C-alpha cells in the first residue's frame, strides 16, 4: 500500500505560488469568492491543510477537485474562515469601551452597531450584555455579519458549550461586569443558551467584507482581529468600506494586533484609545 507523503516541504516556492494563485483565481472566477488578497502565509497553511485532508498530493489537484466538487469547495472555505473568539475576549477592551465610548453613545436617541466578522457570536452577546448593563440595549440594533453561514447559525442560536463558561465568567468580571454572569444564560442538555432578551435586537446576516458594499450607517463598527489576515491592498479596501459605513464621529474598533496607522484612512480618525485600538471618525 502506498503511504501518503506530504510534499509541500520539497516543492519549488515559485511553483507553489503559481499553484496557489491559480487556485484562488479559479475559485473567484467560477464561484465568486475572492480570497486573492488574503495574507499569503495564512492562505498557504490552509491550502496545504485541505490538500492533506482530501488525501491529495498537489495544490493543482485540489483546484481540479474544488472546481468540480462544490462540497470540497465548502470545506476549503471553512478552512479559510478564521473563527477564534470568546465572550468578553480581551477584557481590557470592553473596560475601555465602557469608559470612553459608552458616554458618547448615551447622547444618541438610537444606536446602530455593526460587528463585522462576528464568527460564532460570543463577542456580539458580550456587547449586548455590556449595553444592557449600561441601560442602552433597548435603543440599540446590532448587525452581526460573517462570510461563513455555519458560524452564523451557531451565533443566531445563542447556544455555547458549558465548559467555556468558567473562562467567560472570568473575562466578564475582568471587563467590569456588574452581575452574576450566570444570570444571562440557562444550562441545557447540550450546553448553555443565552437569554432571548439579549438576542431581540441582534440581526445576523451573511456579508463578505471583500466583495460586498456598505448596507447602513453606523455609530460603531467592531472588526477585531480580522484584518490581520488581509494584505495591505485588501486592508485599505475594507477600511474604505468601514469609513463609508460610519457616520461622523462614529467609532471604529479594531483588534489588538491591528491599527489604523499606515492605511489610507489614517488622517480621517482620531485616537480614542491607542492601546485598545479604538478610533473616532473626524472627517
Automatic annotation (TrEMBL):
Q: Which GO biological process categories is it annotated with? A: methylation
Q: Which GO terms describe its molecular function?
A: S-adenosylmethionine-dependent methyltransferase activity
Domain named CheR-type methyltransferase: residues: 32-283
**Does this UniProt record's set of keywords contain Nucleotide-binding?**
no
Keywords noted in UniProt: Methyltransferase, Transferase
What the entry lists under Gene3D superfamilies is as follows: Vaccinia Virus protein VP39 (3.40.50.150)
By its UniProt entry, which InterPro entries does this protein fall under?
Bact_Chemotaxis_MeTrfase, CheR_C, CheR_MeTrfase, SAM-dependent_MTases_sf
Task: Tell whether Transferase is among the UniProt keywords.
Answer: yes
In its UniProt entry, what is this protein called? Protein-glutamate O-methyltransferase CheR
Q: What is the lineage of its organism?
A: Bacteria, Bacillati, Bacillota, Bacilli, Bacillales
